[in-house]
Amino acid sequence: MKNFLGFIALLASNSLFACGFYPYGEELRFSFFNPDLMGYHSYSEFYYSANSFQSNAAYRDFDKTPNELLWVKYCKNKISYQAVQEVMNGMTLGDIHSRSQNAMLIYLYQNKDFEAINYLKFAKNCEFFNSWMEDPWERNEVQASPVRKKLLEKAILLSKQTKNEALKFRYTFLAIRLAFYSQDLVKIRMLFDTVFKEKPSKDILFYWGLYFRTIAEEDKALANFYASQVFVNAPEKRFVISQYYHSDIPLEQVLAFAKTNDERANVYLFAGILKHDKSLEYFKKVHEYRPKFDGLSFMLLREMNKIEDWVFTPYYSLFEPSVETNSYWQEEVSVFAAVQKRVVADRNYAGELLRFINGLDLNSVENPMLWKTCKAYLLFITKDYNSSIALLNELQKVKQSELVTNQLEIIEALALTANQAYGSAILLNEVKPVILRNKNHQKFLFALGRELEYKGNTSDAALLYSTLGKGYENYYENHDYYNSVYWKTVTNATDNYSDFYTNYFDYINVMYTPGQMEALIDNVYKNRDKEDEFSVFKYNVLKTELPLLYDLLGTKYIRQNKLTKAMQSFKKVDAKLWNEKYTNWERDNNGWFFGDKIFDQNPFYVVKYTPEFIPIKDTVRINKYTVTRQLIKYINKAENPNEKNKDYYYFLVGNCYYNMTHFGNAWMMRRYYWTGGGNPTTLEDEREYYECLSAKTYYLLALKNAKTDKFKALCLRMIARCEANRLIHADNDSFKGDYNRFQNYIMANNKYYKELKEKYPNYYNELTSNCDAFGKYFSARR
Question: What is the pTM of this model?
Fold first, then answer.
């Protein structure tokens, strides 16, 4: 029955966490180059992101839009921009009258420009019909289309009748828009081609009209050409026009419609921005045709954000880039080899972009400061740290906004940290104030820690990791989705319960050696009382967790079976941690089955899933220190040549080692988490934890020193249990889902069950079918 319950728990737990959290996309992306600081907000919908392109306001509240500026010009610059904005965005049809206090309306009435006033009234009257949502309750569906049709015909008539050229195009645009919502594509083409094509100047009205003309165009290549011109010249239409781009049309066919270099540049720009992979060749073409162009600068900025994702996301976190384009991951057995291949290739691509920029006169481009900053960043990415630092120092002498200056400092801090020899890397004094100014920028802090770890400074790396918030907490509690860090290691296996880390403790638990742990503890111990601002920040977490660090150090020594060193470490843990984490003496319950770290029972005398069968002689307060001390004591007794009860102590030691495995009541001697499925880890004692190797060794010694057949039979039964666990771990899939097959597999392959049956046939059935009998077999030891 006990075996069956254990088997059911093993099966059930395999799907227990199947629907758990797993990071992806923007949560993973490493970015130290914030595009929003560089002055290209009108392109913000096309910032590089794992979320692809997102609709956003092309203009901010303080931006002046082209249409409203056109009205200011119409009024001969004698009114304020704010007055136009009020009419366009804040007024209804009823607000347009001669008594208005609005400066624009006052100007129009004073100059008797009734054509413009009538246009404004007509435009306001059309607003309701320039939408797909004519009536949210669909009550006026029958009336709306005829009304829109009448307005469309009236707009065309007014366009023909007016002698005011500016209003002619405005009326025509209203007609085009009404035709779009009437789904009359033929009329859109006719209106644009007969009116707007002859427009002498291509202002915002032209490109607004071209936006609808693009949608109505049947020739996909021509539509792409139109779309590229709209994209460049009508920022508020950029996102939606990108939805009408035909990516299957060769670029040569689109370029055939371009007559000027600007138009050619626009074609390459739009196509290049829509590419989620390398766009350098498009970038070069845009520069060839239109070198002093804000779109080119934005394209550079977007390419930089791609490169840092492709390089830094895998380099620092070992996750794939947030936007995967060049998959090397399936080709390699080693995660580390895959990352190296990925990162080397993309650093080389960064080098290509750098070489192109080096061939330009950066004082002749649209935004020299941006280009020089990108050059400094590319130097860092390509590991030319000295040149990067020198250029960054030069750029910081130029007066910039505080946010831009901080961005330069972040890149420099990373370059300074990376530009150190292995074995001597430290947190430099120049970097410390940058950390303090960015102490909430988790990916920056982690990247610094990773650079130090790669250089051999695991102590400072762990200290930086300790300042990070837990990824799950940020995600679920603070909704801080992207300012979290998730990372893997070269030893991570994809079939682990969790193959990534979110906090320092889980990471050092797996990755740090006892020597690295001792160095970390020594560092914290020596510096925990420092009062300068940086030290307070750096040691804030770990100075309060020294007991936990000693606990972890001792646990690592347990995994290596270095019991004396483990006991010395556990001895330094204060009673508070033992009481809260590892003892049930003051508790009314035994905690949560899957997660609590409470010792269930005395590991020497009680075997999990087995009724108590050994009288307890030595009562100790159960925690890691006392268990280790007792284990050393019993081993010494068992190995004493003069000890008469060697079999007894070897058996107790075997019990303790068994209980320190996945199947025992003292699993927390080796692990900090327990799951029923026994999900694999990369810890050094993985086989010991699942295969009960040490327990088997000591039960064999107990058998060797046993004096009675019944006790020998009991020893063989415990050895067979260890062997069964070894077989399960070695071939976990061969019996999954089928209990009878599981039992047959174990019995057929477990030589110790065979030996028990052959040597002690009278005891075999009782010992293998019911563990309630263990007590009388143990009592028969003498």
Answer: 0.88
